[in-house]
Give the backbone structure.
Amino acid sequence: MERSRDNLVRRRGGAIRLLAAVVVSVGAYPHFTLGQETATFFKQNCYSCHTIGGGRLVGPDLKDVTQRKDRDWLARFMLNPQAMIDRGDPYAKQILEEARGVVMSQIAGLTRDRANLLLDLIEAESALEKSQFEGVKFSDRPFTDEDVALGHQLFTGRVALTNGGPSCISCHTVRGLSLLGGGRLALDLTKVSERIGGRKPLSAWLVSPATTTMQPVFRDHPLEAEEILPLVAYFEGAAKQVGDDDSVAPLTFFLMGLGGMVLVLGLFDVLWKNRFRAVRRPLVAGGEMRTSA
């Protein structure tokens, strides 16, 4: 009898411990998922300009950033960097100067709660000996002429990107491309290497472009490291080219368009002239016959 009671107690104790473990797991799961989502959000929106412990890129290294500035200020800056700069905030202006005038863009989908979660992530990663966001490592070997040539082919689309992304020329141009130049939807990239700060920041930015136009495209079609290095080599080479004016490209496009319009109008003139004659001749002939009669 006592043995049966002991067995029952043990079974109940085991069931209670199992239930407690399940409750703890279920309670921890949302936090785990939230942490993963925040890390993914950081990688997609912040990683192209910031590291955590890997040094400056376009923006500052975020390691221990919450020790340099209070969380409330950081959250407000993350939500609207331009507004903080426009208000004349001294620290915001310092960040802008150190970033060579590149203004941090507003992040789509960023809320105050998510900003706080990002700050939690940065604090946790800062405490680690090596953060997962220390930065992507690229080869620092000197660029060759072959690198520049391949970068030109990738930019213009003569060599397709491995993961199916659109070629750069679809939206951008670089001086000296051709008579017609490249796309005018986005910035001229001739001086992009100088503007962003050199090889390392530009390479990191191309890993995960964070602009509202490029991010949705290259999230699913990222550039490979073997494509990033030649593109950076091409941009560095373009920046060294002689000449500061690429106005010949739009002028050439205008003149070709004007010439095409003149050609089309001339063709229509020929076609309609013959049509009018085909109508006029029978009418004139008929009038002459009636006059003779």
Notes: The chain has two domains: 2-126, 145-240.
